[in-house]
Amino acid sequence: MSNLIVAEREIVVPGQELAEGMDFLPGDYVIRDKDKLIATKLGMVNVSGRLVRIVALNEPYLPKRGDLVIGKVVGVGIGGWRVDIGWPFEANLSVKDATSDFIEKGADLSKYFNYGDYIMAEIVNVASSKIIDLSMKGPGLRKLGPGRLLNIPSSKVPRVIGKQGSMIGLVKDYTECKISVGQNGTVWLRGEDPKKELLAVSAIRKIELESHISGLTDKIKEYLESKKDGL
Amino acid sequence: MVYEKRLDGRKFDELRPVEAKVGVVDRAAGSAMFKIGKTIAIAAVYGPRQLYPQVFQNPVAGVLRCNYNMLAFSGSGERVRPGPSRRSKEISLVIEKALLPLLDLSNYAGAVVDVFIELIQTDAGTRCAGICAASMALADAGIPMKDLVSSVAVGRVGGKVVLDLSKEEEDYEGHATDIATAFSTRIGQVTLLQMDGEVSKEELKKALELAKKGCEKIKDIQVKALKERYVGGLNE
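Output (structure tokens, whole complex):
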């Protein structure tokens, strides 16, 4: 006989029992201890079918293949660039993955990306915690121009983006800002009007603070609507 | 000397008043405050981040690095001199060993998770308060762990086994024994067991039973504090 001990969307702590019996399966951040499922992170319970998983409320960014991230160029070498992506170790962007231009052997690569530049790139390979390869080949992958940078916990990125980009689309519509969100929790934004830019920043901060509340899109819409007149 | 009544009027199996709060340091990845009686510990977690010098790196898992420190103004100045010392170095190490068995750092190979524990006010049981705070701070930072670690001191004062000694009891003239313990109450594992003084086999068994009960109470408070960070307050 299997039964769930916790409710959907309930906040659980590490070591808390989630379910009894063998019918449920452990998903993200859930482990099995004999016939019990145990949470290993502070987060919200999500049950889909037989799978019990935890959506972490705060966690360090963990690079995964396919993630679009915003990183800072911290090293320029002869074969590529070193990029800080908010992970303990720098990621590697090689010349062949960076551009389709012909680059002569021994050319000065800082002409393309220089120290301190921010880029939007895709993680194409995670071989180990120290070997992470990036690529700039793909739609939307580019060097980011002047703008504002925000850092949010990577676990809150899905909320900031929303379903099919609904949340970020909402903020973009109201504030007329260009916004790019990296999976690593770095957000880049630029607006023509500084006031609107600040509104976008406060909206993103609000999403970050209230990310665990349901019906957030409507709440943010209300918030943006109420601030719209002041612009 | 017979110890009939505790100096502060508590029952023999009663904890000092406990308070816990999570998220007290904004800049840290995770943080917590744990207060038991007059002892207050603040723990802040930073990382995972790069570990230097490189020889300390572990190629298969992350490294936990704890730093225990009593602030200069924290104690009454009688016995322990606050600040970095042989004692604080040892306590940092035992705290590390008390937390590590329950942590899963396999994703952070080559990196370090730093835990800074500062005691802003000390009475007794500082390492235990430090462990409780550190465990909550690690959970707040989102480091995977099998269970929270709860910790409390037990001991023998004037021939009686007591829970959670205060400073007056530690200094009791008829010989006091102080046993620091840390438990994972879910797994039933002891992760810290240190003793200063003398105790018989039976008394030690009794003391550990008492410690386990005390840790269960402390864990309830830890869990409540962690959940309160997200429930209540923000929902309104």
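Chain A touches chain B through 31 residues (CB under 8 Å).
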